[in-house]
């Protein structure tokens, strides 16, 4: 997986630099890349894009036909470049790296919040407010439920993990008693 990310990074970097110079370019490119990545992730699309019976222009035309958002000339050129270099199926990794660059530029980060139980909006806002103070960043929460945590929450922001779940506390107690 790291290899694919390494190959995708220069495309995301170049696109980010170009989009940053456009008025409102980052937000619109972020949305478009999310859609492109979603389409490129489909098994049927992956199969079609590797079909040796299709040449480059046919792949570009087929892929563009699957996109709902109207494409600018710049977006069409980007897709054609990816097809020409055999990198179209790297769109999920390109989109992921582009989003990380955008978040860094905006001073934001994604907070993966996993809870043992469903959180309502007020609880999520309260958790996010505390986390924003701790990290000094504007956070975008992505909340999931995992009953195996038993209670509490596990939060991942970038490469930092805060685990206050009952499952983690039990594991720490087990390790302490075993030592």
In terms of per-residue confidence, which ranges show pLDDT below 50 for 5 or more consecutive residues?
Answer: none
- What percent of residues are in strands? 5-15%
Shape: elongated
Give the spatial strand order of the biggest sheet: 2-1-3-4
- The counted number of beta strands is 4
Protein name: ATP synthase subunit delta
Family: Belongs to the ATPase delta chain family.
Subcellular location: Cell membrane; Membrane
Pfam families: OSCP
Write a structural description.
It contains eight helices and four strands; from the N terminus they run ααααααβαβββα. The protein is α+β, with helices and mostly antiparallel strands and 179 residues long. It has a four-stranded mixed beta sheet. Strand 1 (108-115), helix 7 (121-135) and strand 2 form a beta-alpha-beta unit. The longest helix has 20 residues, at 2-21. The two termini are 36 Å apart.
